[in-house]
Design goal:
mainly alpha, 8 helices, Butyryl-CoA Dehydrogenase, subunit A, domain 3
Length: about 160
């Protein structure tokens, strides 16, 4: 869930702090987006590598999370275009397993959404970001984000109703 941001300068010394803080949630988000735990692990690893290699480009006067999640989502898009595109949701990881098993039906329903709806839904309801934060992360207009979330929720409702019938 999004929380109050406390500025911490991104550098080689603080990198491990950022990794510890964001790795678990990044894995959940990536697994839900690319629909494969193997792909998610690769995506998260590549994301943190890119963050490390590009930390000199980060503006320390800004919040880390939108920058980080933009890189993560871009890596998910790259992975989604590769061999993982048709992979089903598998076990997310040992860390996310309790969430996955408890809400398995919901993850499967989210997996049926179009990518344009799935990613904002994941960021909103799995990661707790506001619509405005999602717009920054995805570099979309706020109205577009709201519309995608609304359509995604409507589609989820239909999918879940179909499963209960």
């Amino acid at each position: 869930m999004a929380e109050q941001k406390t500025p911490l300068k991104l550098n080689k010394d603080s990198f491990e702090v950022y990794y510890q803080k964001h790795a678990n949630n990044a894995l959940r988000v990536a697994a839900a987006v690319v629909r494969s735990d193997a792909a998610a692990a690769d995506v998260v690893q590549e994301t943190f590598l890119r963050v490390y290699l590009n930390m000199h480009k980060f503006d320390n006067t800004k919040n880390f999370e939108p920058w980080f999640y933009r890189i993560l989502i871009n890596e998910c898009r790259r992975a989604y275009g590769r061999k993982y595109e048709t992979s089903p949701i598998e076990d997310l990881s040992e860390l996310a397993q309790p969430i996955k098993s408890e809400y398995d039906y919901l993850y499967e329903a989210i997996g049926e959404l179009k990518k344009s709806q799935r990613i904002p839904i994941i960021l909103r309801y799995l990661s707790g970001y506001s619509d405005k934060e999602i717009a920054v992360i995805l570099r979309l207009n706020l109205t577009t984000v709201k519309a995608r979330i609304k359509r995604g929720k409507e589609k989820l409702r239909l999918i879940l109703q179909r499963e209960n019938d």
